[in-house]
Records
---
Amino acid sequence: MSLSPDQIRVLDTIRDEWDSAETDIKLAEQVCKDIIVPAVKELRYAGRRLVDLVQKISNEPTSGEIPKLLADVEFDCHRARHDAIDAASAKIAIQLDIMAEKLGYDVILSVAPEFRDISLKVLAIRERVLNTRGENRKDRVKIYAVVSATNFKDLVEAYELLKTSEPIMVKLAKLGRRRDFYGRWGFWVGAAGLLIGAVSIYLIFFPPHSDTTTAPTPTSIVAPAPAKHG
Amino acid sequence: MFMEKLRELYSWFTLADYEKASEEATKRIVKRYIRGNVSGQDGRYLNEGNLADLSARGDLAATRLRQKILS
């Protein structure tokens, strides 16, 4: 089988796309801690088309189907990358949202000032991914817009770096919560002490009057002893 | 104990026990034969449904994050 220079160039492109897809799938798995099956399936479809392509080049080198198969293989690789980026960026967005909600900005920004930058990058990706829902999933231009404009590797590296600071952030947030808790309880204990003190002072200076018209004591109602006769 | 028996009876009645056994057997075989991938061996994977769910949750989180970051 002999390939023309054009065909060799296209195969080179496919190899590069395949490499990128594999890299992105591995990165997504690293972020999600799960295999992203839809992305792997897209690569499987690409593999099937590649076999057809090689067979076509070998048997009918001038077939008009060859450019179509090439485009399909490339698109399958893009879709594989798209699914990997979708999964990982969703996971990162969820994690960043939880961090902002539970740890607080003072803690996060004191440990990882790059938090805002990473968040903005993820938001930009999610916006592009949102445009590829439903029917737009077949839109090659929109799918390509997600994979081409995304520096996915840099984002994952920045996120992993942020995650290494997570234990420090958690410790600081714990300290903050304790301080907050003791601060609040300190206020209420102080307020209660003040109230008790005020009541005590009042009782010292204005003691309650003792009531003298009390009921007769039991001794006063004891019957007198009978007089002795004789 | 009683509730467990009741659940078993319900599974038997609705044939859910068959579905569950079949699913577990598939998972066991996949885990055994998926070589070279720790996540797969641990049975951790996202199928189409899981990915759609994760993606939807990611969109919600992104909306909240946008409000927090840009407000």
---
Amino acid sequence: MPLLTVEDLTVTYRHHGTSVRAVDGISFTIGSGEILALVGESGSGKSSAALALAKLLPSPPAEVSGQVMMERVHPHTNIFGVGVNLLSASEEALRAIRGGKIAYVFQDPATSLNPVLTIGEQLREAIELHTGARGEEATRVVVEWLQRVGITSAKERLSAYPHEFSVGMQQRVCLAMAMATQPSLLIADEPTTALDVTIQVQILRLMRDLQRAFRLSVLLISHDLTVVERIAHRVAVMSQGKLVEIGPVAQVLGHPVHPCTKALLACRSAVALRRAGRADG
Amino acid sequence: MMNLLRNRLAVMGGVILVVLAVVAIFAPALSPHDPLQINLPDALLPPSAAYPLGTDLLGRDVLSRLIYGTRISLLIGFIAVGIAVIVGTAVGALAGFYGGWVDAVLMRFVDTLLSIPTIFLLLAVIAMDPAQRLLELGGLPLIGGLAKGFFQAVDPQIVMLMAVIGLMSWMGVARLVRAEILSLKEREFVLAARVLGASSLRVITKHLLPNAMAPVLVSATLGVGGAILTESVLSYLGLGVQPPTPSWGNILNEGRVALGVAWWLTLSPGLCILFTVLAFNLVGEGIREWIGRRSAGAK
Amino acid sequence: MIAYLIRRLVALLPVLLWITVISFGIIHLAPGKPTDAAMQFNPKVSLEARARIEKLYGLDQPLPVQYLNWLGRIARLDFGRSFLDERPVTEKIVERLPITLTINIASLLLVLGIAIPIGVRAAVRPGGLFDRFTTVGVFLGYSMPSFWLALLCLAFFGVTLHWLPISGIHSLDHDSFGLVQRWLDTAWHLVLPVGIAAFSGLAGLSRYMRSSMVDVLQQDYIRTARAKGLSERRVLFHHGLRNGLLPVITILGLSLPDLLGGSVIAETIFSIPGMGRLFYDAVMARDYPIVMALVTVGAILTMLGNLLADLAYAYADPRIRVGRSR
């Protein structure tokens, strides 16, 4: 049984009388422990879809309709519980799920972290809210997770501010912040786009390792197919708000059906060729 | 939704300004009485048919004085801001264009002036009786010509007020212009002009300034309101427009003595100031929004 | 931080110098000698006193020399003596300083206490009813002459209703009161002046607070905070306000000159014996030593205030307080 079932998700933005359909009735599922990549060119609606899942889009301009059924999975035994439709859940219930069951990592780590709070504080906040850990124990969990994502001398770094870290490190901190509450689903919106190519690889590997270790489901948004190839199991292609193709990575990328998929692939090949060219010469 | 509200407010402001202009220009025709006519038996009368807004301590008609006061306020407001814009633009353009030590020295001077509380500076300067100095300097003939149109004799006090208020307000304009010039300096069309051999002065006046003027327009409009407020404070304190020439501020000053009994002497001039300054503020903000929307659309 | 502090202090030196030049220059705007006008207004100044003053100020020496002499003297905090009563200017200023500072600080706190909540509330729902209502209020506040408002309050609360006193800072029988009652009596007298002084700053600050918060609430880290499941309250105050207040600190620093200037009006209307009133009286009586001294002191106080605001900002913003990567 899939962890998340999205049915007919629609997101409409209304502004001064005009309305735009950013997401037009898409449906897909994410299985437990699976990495689903959501790809498409800019403006295809993938970010809006991702934010809509936990109702994170500001309500006056955005209107969301459809169904997002999430099964409750017990972290250790993988026993499935009764599902809940996120889009019709109360604010209270949603707040328990946000950060607790569904965690987000965003594109720009520098602006995603609050500049006036220490990273220790920001991590502890999430942990104290969603787990039972308090005080000393919470600190221990924070340090543990910082170490897990590869931050050295984590204990001393607790009182450091985000601007004291490099961009790659900041993204690791964001990952730690998302993972520390042991969510069932991690939604990563272009997590590597703002990073250097070498760091991109490191972060992707980190995500894959974490995913394997904790049997995490991941919804990975990207416009870059190389990223998708590296870690995703299945891929869904979006274009102009609609879902045009979905299937296992090897199949979709190997034998694309829809012209948009083909266009994306062509893009990637061009980049790869250029890279290869540079390497040679 | 806010845009609709702002739009309506700005239009309201514009309407008020038009009314003010009409009142100022047609003052003699609109005033029921001579504003300078003293009529002691009729002193301190409440509003009536004969005197729609009552009379003051010397029996003069308040309404007529308020109407003529409009001329003073608008005159001082516009010319003071005119002076501020000219001086401020010159200083700001020089600082922004030449940079380096010119910029440093000029901006330190601006910072200094801005640190002195405006009222302190204003009062201190006025206490030194600069009207006398002005007369001595003979700077009067130019500006005096303009003032002559409105009054029988040239009033050095008013000219002095315009100059002093204007010279206290140019700093903000200077900073604005400098910022605009700094950002425009490196743009292609400027570099193109310089490559083609245009002299510095030409570059400044023909290319940089016209583009920098938009925020200055906003600042100037808001500045007229500010100048009118400043003039009213000075007149209230007895250092601005001197009686018998009517100014909203000095009517309030005269009204202070009779505060408990003659409420009309305090209420009406204050409302005049309030609505006039409000009008300029609304129009100024309206222009700011309009400019903002234009440049956002152009992008 | 220390390096920042030192840099700021050094940058202030040229401004300080300019202030002295301007203060000095103003006096010599007057036609004739400074003492001439003083004579006109104060028949009390005798011929001998005038000669003594002229010698004291070295008025017969060339301007640059006079300036340097003056500079030397004010460095020792010697601002000379008042033309009116021959008392040392420094003494007269010092005895009035506490009152003016009290009024200014009290009105500043009042402004902060009202403007910040208003700005935040308006920012949470931009375009909403509260926002529109306060926008209109802000426009009115910007456009209203504060001295007029003072007069109206005086007439209404003081004369008509007799709720609040209309002049001075002490009642007639103040000295017979106990300590607490004396404090309350003074506070009661300060209600109107502080209120009026606060009124002018309210409009600007609440507007600024609003736009700062609107800006902050659009930032990515607010989205992250919400994505973590934090309550809207925590997002707004713990994450939002902490950032939103930073630019407000700078603005506070910039509005200090206006605050001091506002004292002149408030103190004059309500007959409060403070620095502003002293300045006004000195201007009317052409008591130049006091005028010069207060212009200088006023500017220096503003500069100090700015410096404090700068330091507060540097301390509050970790990006400045703690350097780059360790």
